[in-house]
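Beta/gamma crystallin 'Greek key' domain-containing protein
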Amino acid sequence: MGKITFYEDRNFGGRCYECSSDCADLHSYFNRCNSLKVHSGCWMLYEHPNYMGHQYYLKRGEYPDYQKWMGYNDSISSCRMIPEHRGSFRIRLYEKGDFGGQMMDFTEDCPNVYDRFHFNDIHSCHVNDGYWIFYEEPNYRGRQYYLRPGEYRKYSDWGAMSPKIGSFRRVDYI
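C-alpha cells:
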C-alpha cells in the first residue's frame, strides 16, 4: 500500500490532498502542485488527467518544490501507484517497430543505452517481468516513461513522441 500527499504551495504549504490509490483526475482536490511527500510506495505522476502528458517517477521522500522531482511546472493531474514487484526483471528492446530489427534482453538497469545497444532509438519493446522507467537522456535524466508488463509495438504505446531512449531502470522499492 502506498501513500502520497500533494501540496499546492512550496515547502508543504497551502491546501493538501492525501492519496493512497490511482487517481485519473486530481483537479477536484487541488489546483496546482508545488510540493509533495511520498510516505510509502513508488508513484508515477502525470501532468494531465487520465495518465497523460509528462510523467514523473517518485520514490519515498520529501519534495519541497516541483523542480526536486524534475517537474517542468506545477501541473500534476493524475497519479498511479506502482505495485511492488518481487522476483526477476526482464525487458526486451527492439530497434524497429512491431518487434523488428536488432533485439536485446536486459535484466538490470542501463545508464546509457547507446553504450550497450549502439543506438538510441527504441521503437518497440516487451516487458516480460517487473516495472521499468525509460528516460530520454543517459544517466536517468529527461522525460520519463512508465512501462508495465506487456507488449509495446511502437514508442507512442508508452507515451513517447519520439523513439529516443537514453537510459532505463527497474522500479525497485529498495
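DSSP finds one helix and 14 strands in the chain.
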